[in-house]
Write a structure and sequence with these properties.
Layout lengths: L16 H8 L4 H27 L6 H46 L2 H7 L1 H42 L1 H22 L2 H24 L1 H6 L1 H54 L4 H49 L18 E9 L10 E9 L4 E6 L5 H8 L7 E6 L2 E2 L5 H5 L2 E4 L17 H10 L8 E2 L2 E2 L6 H15 L3 E5 L7 H17 L3 E5 L11 E6 L2 E7 L12 H9 L1
Parallel strand pairs: 3-10, 3-11, 6-9, 9-10
Antiparallel strand pairs: 1-2, 1-4, 4-5, 7-8, 11-12
Helix pairs in contact: 2-3, 2-5, 2-10, 3-5, 3-10, 4-10, 5-6, 5-10, 6-9, 7-9, 9-10
Bound molecules: adenosine-5'-triphosphate.
The site of adenosine-5'-triphosphate (ATP) has 11 residues, from helix 11.
Keywords: ATP-binding, Membrane, Nucleotide-binding, Transmembrane, Transmembrane helix
GO cellular component, one term: plasma membrane
Membrane topology: Multi-pass membrane protein
Amino acid sequence: MRTRVTGIGGSPAGTNVIGFIFREAADERPKLLIAATGAGISNTLVVTLVGFVAQSPDDVGIEIFLLFALAVVVYVFGARYVFHRMTDIVEEILFRLKSRIVEKIERAELAGLERLGTAEIYDRITENATLISNAAGVVTNVMQQILIFVFAVLYVAWLSLPAFVLVAFLVAVGLTLYFTRSEGMTPLLRELARTRIAFLDSLTDLLRGFKETKLGRARSVEIRADIDATSASLRDVSRKANHLFDENFILVGCTQFALLGALVFVLPRHVTIEGATLSKLVTAAMFLWGPLQAAVSGYPAYVRSNHAVKDILALEEKLDAAADAARVEQAEDPWKGKPGVIAMRDVEYAYAGTNGDASFRIGPIDLSIEPGEIVFIVGGNGSGKSTLLKVLTGLYPATAGVLRAGDERVRPENVASYRETISAIFSDFHLFSRVYGLLGVDEAHVRRLLVEMQLEGKTDFQKDRFTKRELSTGQRKRLAMIVALLEDRPICVFDEWAADQDPEFRKHFYDELLPSLKRRGKTVIAVSHDDRYFHCADRVVTMDYGKIRTIEHAAPAPSRSSIPSSNESTSEARS
Ligand SMILES: Nc1ncnc2c1ncn2[C@@H]1O[C@H](COP(=O)(O)OP(=O)(O)OP(=O)(O)O)[C@@H](O)[C@H]1O
């Protein structure tokens, strides 16, 4: 059966799937080779015996039949062993590869992962892994067919040396043409990989923006046009690649016809050859066709799996690069859960620019936050508040300056331990399906928090999960708050947490929750736009264009009549 191309990746990393499997099967290589050779020989023997018996059926004794039966048995056991082991080995490699990639994702720095994007990771870990998995059987078959082919050619050499020379010459010409033409495949495969990721990106855009597309016909038509365009180019490149494979397949068939033609039309004119030998040669040449076609039709799958292997290894390299700074994380923990004063001295952070564009940067920033202090970070949209939080929490490594916690400088060697002292709810927070990091937590305690967050009856907590996570944004943020409270870490970081809460719960957050955290000795760093609650902070840090504009000690709570409207004060802050 022909193997079709459905979209393959390409990359510069250098290895192939056979090397990959053989490296993995180092101890088993001799056994695999013996089993594959045994299967190949017995397969050839079966066909040779059948040809022999067909020539003179009356001369056949029981020993020929027993040899025939033995060859079948050897083939079955040899082939079974090779196929099963190759599948096991490939699946084991893929299992290890996936867990290694997941580990590297975990170790990657946030900025590195943000640059990489999710489409490439999804594609490599699913599509490419499936390609390699499917190719295991095909690759084994190709290797076995090559062995059978070699034995069949040896059989031809035994029958007639001139015929062997003819076969060797025509097969060499055919294969040289085939492989030369197949080289045209590499750029097509690379193009396919790029197009497939672009397709995934557009599809993700459509799915994430589903509501928006439902509301706008023009938007939906335009995004559809973009997806169709990517999909069409995926189809065209895939079609080109498959046509190339088809032509190569036909080319090998032509080599076969040339071989048969040369055997019957050319050879007898130049070499003395008996009719019986010629007939055996023709049978052998026809027999050669099977393994050759099988090997050639399996070759696309082999090429695809090679590209898939290269792409996965290239992804690993990118993840390694993203993990550089955090390579030795967990090595040190100087704080033992007590980070002390957090101090930023001349700290700067710059996003990596794309296509030479100037990127946004914050700093230089000088800021110290005492344990137990409540600090609000305020400022207009895009002033760098969230970026500052990510640097402060050690998620973005400062590109200049020093971040200290207590007496210790936060460095790649200890940043993971520093992060362990912080609970954070970012504006794009994620609620995990289970309360990872808190598995086995006391359910009664969680239920009390559900009551405090006014979520009883909306969801419940059973077996380490909130029974329902499809809640309103404000309610989901309350669930995230429950997780943060359960973590019970000394530093709490909230990025516009109150923004999606109703007035009553917003008041609860500022007037009760934050003071109760303070009473428990927690440091709270919160991004806020709620100017009417700025008095709840010990200090208010105002950011503007990535720099700290002012740091003010909070004024006492204003009387109700003097509270400005939220709009007034926001515009004042921005002016
Ligand atoms: N992942 C990123 N890569 C590159 N630039 C980014 C990235 N995230 C944010 N920026 C840039 O950093 C600037 C500051 O963004 P940031 O989210 O820190 O602002 P903010 O003060 O929290 O804004 P808002 O009040 O709207 O949440 C933005 O203008 C944006 O251009």
